Description:
Helices cover 75% and strands 0% of the residues. By secondary structure, it is mostly helical. Helix 1 crosses helix 11.
Amino acid sequence: MNPLQRLGRWISDHLIMAFGLLVLVYMFVPIAIVVLMSFNDNSKSRNVYAFQSFTVNNWIHPCQPNGMCDSVVRSIEIGLLATIVATILGTLAAFALVRHRFAGRSTANLIIFLPMASPEIVMGASLLALFVATGFGGQLGFFTILIAHIMFCLSFVIVTVKARLGGLDDNLEQAAMDLYATEAQAFWRITFPLVFPGILGAALLSFSLSFDDFIITNLNAGQTVTFPMFVWGAAQRGVPMQVNVVGTAMFLISVLIVLGAELSRRKTAKVA
């Protein structure tokens, strides 16, 4: 094999890996910039993308911009509540759609995708019209945001959990019941542990979607200010560097949750 053939063989063997690395770099460059800017002392410049000097004051005083921490706490509260409700309802709906046959099942599967396919501005305006029509137009705030977030998170939970359920073997439950396990025991000891990674993934996705939503929230928020709305308002004057601190902290927490779940899975696999 001549050198040109060896070079061509080497390129063909490593091309996919090279493209994968490029995609990863492309995805993580914005995150790296956010982490870098969280240590930026930009108090003397209105150019928020110019790195002036290194400082840890942004991390020591993350609540320095008035109202920012309040908006973060409010977004976390809404995100957690929307995640809990949407995950419970979506998981139950996913089990019903996968495990049972009923009239309108195919139509329900189609309707589930509509909130995911609809533009956010359309969904936000539709929810606003619904709240106004039902008499909540003058009471827009925390609860209208929560209802809106539960509604658009439901579709993502159902689709995620359905995908997990679709890959399970029904014979596992049958085998458990053949060994004298009740339906409840078979569910909690066999089905639920197998489905739990999908449920956890759906919950994390729901929280992420809820925490960073702006369009639907802005249309149904009234006087309530969430973190994305605070960032949008602050951008009119110059985004404070503490915003990058919040972004970096949320990213690190997400990584720790994923790593913890993976380590727990590997530990369980070794025991088994």
